[in-house]
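Worked example 3. Consider a protein that binds zinc ion.
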Amino acid sequence: MPLFAQDTLHSPLSIPLWFSGNFGEIRTGHFHTGMDIRTGGVEGVPVLAAQTGRISRVKVSDSGYGLALYLDGRGLTTVYAHLSRFHPDIEQWLQTTQYAAESWAFDGPPGETFGFEAGDTIGWSGNSGRSFGPHLHFEVRDQRTQWPINPLRWTLVGEGVTEDDVPPEFRGVWVLPAGDCEIEGARDRFRWSPAYGESVRVAGPFHLGVEAFDRLDGEPFTHGPHGIDVFLDDSLIHRHRMDTLDFSTNKDVSAHIDIAAWQDRRTRVHRLHRLPGNRLDIYHKTGDMTPLAVAPGDTAQLRVVVMDLPGNISTAEVQLIGDSLRLATDTAEFSLLDHRRRHRLTEGRIGIELPPGALYGDAAIALVDDSSGTFSVVSEARLTRSAYQITVPVPVAWKGTGEPMVLCGIDEDGEVDGTWVADERGGMIGAKVKQFGTFEVRPDTVAPVLGSPRLVEGALRLAVEDDLSGIDRWEGRCNGQWMRLGWEKGELVYQVGDGILTDGAEIKVWAVDEVGNLGHREFTWPLK
Ligand SMILES: [Zn+2]
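Given these inputs, the predicted complex is written out as structure tokens:
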């Protein structure tokens, strides 16, 4: 681990710290790179500089971190995300910059120097960007590499931090068949927990996974453990630690975990073997794709140690008993595709093309065209490391109409869970996607709908609704002058305090979706 100039940081909030998320916990598509700190269900809690330094980056976005500040000092960058408002000096500079560029979104170093002492108020907490309830996302990075580091490596000085005397929770060991394998007399994956007994019978090659999570005192939330050690007959076979992460490989969390267990039941199963495409740098020791085996009549003792950062640990032991195969060999097994090679597959009217390395590891893939209008790419791999091409036909009723079509991902309940803009060529459309599952082509002919303008606490608000592709861009003008319209959870928001509205002024607002459908609304100021 790198050494830094300080071993304490100022608490980033003016209230005692209660965490709803920790560093390294598993989220969909990434490990969490900071601490989520509760703000009592409200916005507007003062956010304090964790260190003395200057603002190196300001971000204003409708997604991700929303409104965020990056503060550099003594080798560290501290990050404060999902804010509602910045320090008035930063707000003033930002407003001028936004009007000059006629752009609400911003991401870069500020054009002026904003220096703060540790403990100074730099902004106020909020719920902006991809946030599902008011909280502060606090992150500490190595300033040089911008790699996030576990913030609990520093003592946070201030109003206090939740004590953590609760050890992580060990839940189970997953035994995953790797070929011709039986576990407890069946061919399915098997979840062992201490309640089951002290041993598991295994015949043939298998992989292992560990299900565990951490809890902080008095908190209902489940977090990620700081690390897991696994020993087989006293020799270390797996060790990983959540000390630091790298944004460029962070999405490989999907290869670290059993992705099917996560997607289907939000179960956190850490694989003890490394898929070939997994580039994460969190392993001190881990297995490769060579399966484990215990010879018939032999036994092996598996010991799992799960730990949190303050040093609380939980351990579990299970004996693996080698057994002989008893069931008939499964002949219906799909052949695995080599992840290092290019693959073109077709079935009926659906085709896919996977570039070399698109898969995290060798996987079986089946295509389904059942003539119902939906198409499926079925694989236990569930998703890919890099995008692959999918080609499906446009529904007959829409062929050649020139209407914008989108490829929709359809979840188990038949709901759209993702859309990709696609071009029609010869009655077929193609898109680059990173997930397997069920797809359907639908027309997106409906323009965004802008609701009636409302005045709420000094802000002009218009709700915007769009089906399928979603809002791409928007613009508002008052007597021709650009208005600073921000995006907040499905609403366009203008701060009346910006001062460009005049009595009798004509206001025009547009919103355009991802395929180019345009919706607009015109009204006069003041609102009637
Ligand atoms: Zn967060």
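Take a moment to read the result before moving on. The chain has a mean pLDDT of 94. The first strand starts at residue 8 and ends at 10.
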